[in-house]
Amino acid sequence: MKRSPVTATPDGDTAVNASAPAGAAAAPTGAPFLALRRVNVFYGARQALADVSLSIDRVGITALVGPSGSGKTTLLTCVNRLTDLIPSCRVTGAIRCGDLDVLSPDTDVLRLRRRIGMIFQKPNPFPFSIRRNLACPLREHGVTDPRLIDARLESALRQVGLWDEVSDRLDTAALALSGGQQQRLCIARALMLSPDVLLMDEPCSALDPMSSGWVEDLITALRRQYTIVIVTHNLAQARRIADHAALFWVRDGVGRLIEHGPAAQLFDHPRHELTAAYINGVRG
Ligand SMILES: Nc1ncnc2c1ncn2[C@@H]1O[C@H](COP(=O)(O)OP(=O)(O)O)[C@@H](O)[C@H]1O
Ligand SMILES: [Mg+2]
Questions:
Q1: pLDDT at 282
Q2: CATH numbers and ranges of domains, the chain
Q3: 86 lines ligand 1 (CB under 6 A)
Q4: Ligand 1 contact, 68 CB (< 6 A)
Q5: What's the chain look like in SS3?
């Protein structure tokens, strides 16, 4: 599948061409697509992440694992600048996403978030209809043609395997869906803008085992099209789905990246004793 084309809007910005399939794909280039260099994060005087450097390929799944408080969520929120919303939060270092300098004050955050979608632990549909949930991101980016919105909406719902389940009730409340359906809807909403990157913060942990399995299958199906960075406490899941994995740990009160590499290597032949301890079930 080719990268979705974009069309110019009157304000000179670019908007999603909703006649294209909802989904971005690009040939792997070999160069890292998402690159963090010496990233430090502080909440007030307290440091949450120290000196994280991490390179992530254009396509595939990178799993972030490690004990609670080791800075995994913080790392995700730096990448799409949700950290901007926390007044006490300060981020230093450099993050590149494709050609975007993420942390630069000149970077258009709306444009950045179009390229980088985020999925949270608890499904968070808006208290609107299914249709309006999916239309929202396009409307925010200036797409108002209902035919274009409907075409994109169907494509995104098919991508997440929801179309057959909801196509006859698009105008009913999204919150009436089951938890697993809501999470797939949230993924579809994130796909509406054809992002490059999907950040997922424990996307299965609030779901029942069967829904969790469906969402996991969906994430696996998306791995060839997107740069997926997923936080998970489920090591069996990380082992099943991840191409690469990174272990975070709290040392001296600060979250640090301990080891990063191919998932098979990290899980089966960890180089660091903390990784071995974590995957063998020792608590941090
Ligand atoms: N909004 C915030 N304000 C202050 N401290 C925070 C905030 N969010 C996270 N922290 C702190 O940053 C550290 C890392 O947290 P977090 O990124 O949530 O870790 P994880 O996702 O690995 O559990 C923790 O010590 C946490 O208390
Ligand atoms: Mg977290």
A1: 58
A2: 33-121+195-279 (3.40.50.300)
A3: yes
A4: yes
A5: CCCCCEEECCCCCEEECCCCCCCCCCCCCCCCCEEEEEEEEEECCEEEEEEEEEEECCCEEEEEECCCCCCHHHHHHHHCCHHHHCCCEEEEEEEEECCEECCCCCCCHHHHHHHEEEECCCCCCCCCEHHHHHHHHHHHCCCCCHHHHHHHHHHHHHHCCCHHHHHHHCCCEHHHCCHHHHHHHHHHHHHCCCCCEEEEECCCCCCCHHHHHHHHHHHHHHCCCCEEEEECCCHHHHHHHCCEEEEEEEECCEEEEEEEEEHHHHHHCCCCHHHHHHHCCCCC
Q: Is the CB of 170 under 6 A from ligand 1?
A: no
Amino acid at 28: P
Shortest-distance Cα residue to atom 25 of ligand 1: 69
| 8 A C-beta contact, residue 29 and residue 202 | no
State which ligand 1 atom lies nearest to the alpha carbon of 74.
17
pLDDT for residue 7:
33
CA angle, residues 227, 119, 160, in degrees to nearest 5: 75
Three-class SS of 47-85: EEEEEEEEEECCCEEEEEECCCCCCHHHHHHHHCCHHHH
Is the separation of the CB atoms in 36 and 252 below 8 Å?
A: no
List, run by run, the mean pLDDT of 10-residue segments along the chain (284 residues): 32 37 43 94 98 96 97 98 97 97 96 95 97 96 94 96 97 97 97 96 95 94 96 95 98 97 96 94 60
Q: For residue range 171-197, what is the model confidence (pLDDT) as tens digits?
A: 999 999 999 999 999 999 999 999 999
